């Protein structure tokens, strides 16, 4: 996102904001102690927004008539798919996988997506070894645990944060960057958890913490921050990470947590941000009007 305007804290921005949303221009209005800031999500709208600001300041802002049609939902879906295809695909596969493992009877889908093959024999959990996976060539298992969620609350929590952070990366650095971060961090997270002796784990939380680390440390290390993840969001997710580490979730009876995957993902995402800046540098952001 880029900042385009600072205005006094007592100035009413509701008219301008309504018109921006009417024109489907994503933005944020941030309230600071002594002023307000308007931030633009997509730099492509920068020239149009500048003209809107001039018209608004002169009292000549044209009002867009918002017409709701039957095709509006389809239009939003198409727009979202074009803007954030990887984020949407990640969440769609996770929903389908979670629904599938809850509906199936034999457990073949579940066993086919775990890090190593698992099954039940004589009311006991049995599992294969990493060597079995390597010998059989089932290398997809190194990634597919991220799509396994053991409850809908688990899926919803992870999906909400992946939706927010994944879109930021696709918006600012394109889909190929998100694919790279997701694949590398998922490998690190899954192997980290497996090395603790666990074979039954899953979820997007390792990827979630990778995306958080990537966005947060990119903005800390780069000359020009682009993601602007709120400090409160970072602190809240770090508190949750520590709460899980000390066994808080288990004490609440919500099951075990893949803590090694969380930490592995966070470290991987943070290191990827540093390495990408070190190797490729960063692009000059668009000019800002402040």
Notes on the structure:
The protein is mostly helical. It has 2 domains: 56 residues, Alpha-Beta Plaits, CATH 3.30.70; 198 residues, Up-down Bundle (Rhomboid-like fold). The chain is built from 11 helices and 5 strands.
> CATH homologous superfamily name of the largest domain?
Rhomboid-like
Structural class: mainly alpha
Assign the CATH class of the largest domain.
Mainly Alpha
Number of strands: 5
- Total discrete domains: 2
Summarize the structure.
This is Rhomboid family intramembrane serine protease. It is found in: Membrane. 57% of the residues lie in helices and 9% in strands.
Features:
290 residues, mainly alpha, Alpha-Beta Plaits, Rhomboid-like fold, three-stranded antiparallel beta sheet, 5 strands, elongated, disordered C terminus
Task: Give a topology summary.
Layout: E1 2-8, H1 14-22, E2 27-31, E3 35-40, H2 46-57, H3 72-83, H4 85-103, H5 108-113, E4 118-121, E5 124-127, H6 130-136, H7 152-194, H8 205-221, H9 231-245, H10 248-251, H11 259-280
Antiparallel strand pairs: 1-3, 2-3, 4-5
Transmembrane segments: 84-103, 139-163, 175-194, 200-221, 233-254, 260-279
Protein name: Rhomboid family intramembrane serine protease
Membrane topology: Multi-pass membrane protein
């Amino acid at each position: 996102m880029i900042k385009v305007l600072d205005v006094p804290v007592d100035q009413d921005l509701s008219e301008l904001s309504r018109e921006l949303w009417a024109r489907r221009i994503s933005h944020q209005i941030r309230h600071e102690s002594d002023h307000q800031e308007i931030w633009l999500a997509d730099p492509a709208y920068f020239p149009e927004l500048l003209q809107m600001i001039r018209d608004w300041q002169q009292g000549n802002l044209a009002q867009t008539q918002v017409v709701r049609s039957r095709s509006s939902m389809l239009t939003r879906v198409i727009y979202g798919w074009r803007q954030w295809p990887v984020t949407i695909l990640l969440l769609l596969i996770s929903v389908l996988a979670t629904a599938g493992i809850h509906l199936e009877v034999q457990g073949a889908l579940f066993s086919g997506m775990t890090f190593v093959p698992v099954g039940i024999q004589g009311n006991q959990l049995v599992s294969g070894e990493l060597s079995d996976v390597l010998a059989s060539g089932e290398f997809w298992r190194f990634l597919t645990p991220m799509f396994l969620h053991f409850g809908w609350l688990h899926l919803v929590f992870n999906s909400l944060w992946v939706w927010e952070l994944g879109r930021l990366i696709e918006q600012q650095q394109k889909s190929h960057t998100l694919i790279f971060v997701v694949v590398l961090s998922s490998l690190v997270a899954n192997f980290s958890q497996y090395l603790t002796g666990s074979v039954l784990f899953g979820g997007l939380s390792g990827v979630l913490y990778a995306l958080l680390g990537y966005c947060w440390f990119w903005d800390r290390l780069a000359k020009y921050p682009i993601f602007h993840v709120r400090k409160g969001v970072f602190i809240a997710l770090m508190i949750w990470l520590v709460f899980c580490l000390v066994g808080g979730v288990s004490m609440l009876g919500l099951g075990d947590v893949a803590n090694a995957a969380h930490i592995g993902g966070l470290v991987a995402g943070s290191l990827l941000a540093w390495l990408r800046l070190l190797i490729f540098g960063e692009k000059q952001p668009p000019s800002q009007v402040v």
